[in-house]
Amino acid sequence: MEFHVVGYVHKWVISGLMWLSVVSAHAALFDDNEARTAILDLRQRIEASRVASEVAITRAGEDNMVLRRSLVDLQNQIELLRTELARLRGMNEQLTRDVSDSQRQQKDSVQRTDERFKQFEPLKVNVDGREFFAEPLEKRDFEAALLVFRRGDFPAAQTVFLDFIKRYGASGYRVSALFWLGNAQYAIRDYKEAMNNFRALIAQDSEHVRAPEAVLSIANCQIELKDTRGARKTLEDLVKAYPQSEAAGAAKERLARLK
Predict the structure, then answer these.
(1) How far apart are CA 224 and CA 237, in angstroms?
(2) Whole-prediction pTM value?
């Protein structure tokens, strides 16, 4: 912009000087007053043009300075905005990580809580063909007692099954617990107590899958106690009550030997 204004002024000055030369060359054609008047007028015009040009140059410089300051201010504002945007992006990324961590911790907490509650929720179990709900601790204790029996530690098995029946009197495991308790007592030759528990089993659930075996076990106890008549009666009742059971087949074999 400065270069355009200076060029413009330069042209005006040259034109004025050329005009002044022309006027001076022809001044002789006019009288002195007219020549002086024309020269003064031309000088005034040139001076006015010069002043106007200087004012234009000054204003152009000022405008240029203002424009430069505006550009600098704009650049500074852009840098500030970039810095703020970077800060906000960083905050957003951190917030996203915090939310993700919080959600993961909450999920883990809920899962741990669910697992703790599951330890106390009743479980559906199926034992000896019977399905029922049992407490987790109840299930654990029955399986632990059964494991003792299967290890062949019959005195300990008697103890743990007696304890189980006392603590879980209304348990769905009770009939099965009576069966294994009777077998543990039979193994340690406590035949009378064994018979009592086998009879308790039959009295509680005569349709239980273990009932025919319990009747056969009562007959075996009677045989061990030399109660042949009682054993024969028990075996005959077994064949009548559970004719299709495996225990009934074994009862027939024992009856044949008792005769």
Answers:
(1) 19
(2) 0.57
Element (H, E) at 127: strand 123-127
Return the half-sphere exposure (C-beta side, CA atoms, 13 A cut-off) of residue 128: 18
Query: Which of the following CATH numbers is that of domain 123-258: 3.20.20.30, 3.30.365.10, 1.25.40.10, 3.40.50.300?
Result: 1.25.40.10
Whether 234 and 218 have beta carbons less than 8 Å apart is answered as: yes
Q: How many CB atoms neighbour CB 38 within 10 A?
A: 17
pLDDT in tens, 133-189: 999 999 999 999 999 999 999 999 999 999 999 999 899 999 999 999 999 999 999
Q: What pLDDT score was predicted for residue 2?
A: 46
Q: Are 221 and 186 in contact (CB under 8 A)?
A: yes
User: CA–CA separation, 182 vs 193, rounded Å?
Assistant: 7
* Per-residue CA distances from 170 to 145, 164, 177, 181, 225 (Å): 17, 11, 12, 16, 32
Number of residues that make up the chain = 259
Nearest 5 degrees, angle CA 188-CA 193-CA 198?
A: 105
* Contact of 173 with 200, CB cutoff 8 Å: no
Place of tokens 């703020």: 84
Whether the Cβ atoms of residue 194 and residue 217 lie closer than 8 Å to each other: yes
Residue type, 208: H
CA 114, 115, 120 angle in degrees (round to 5)?
95
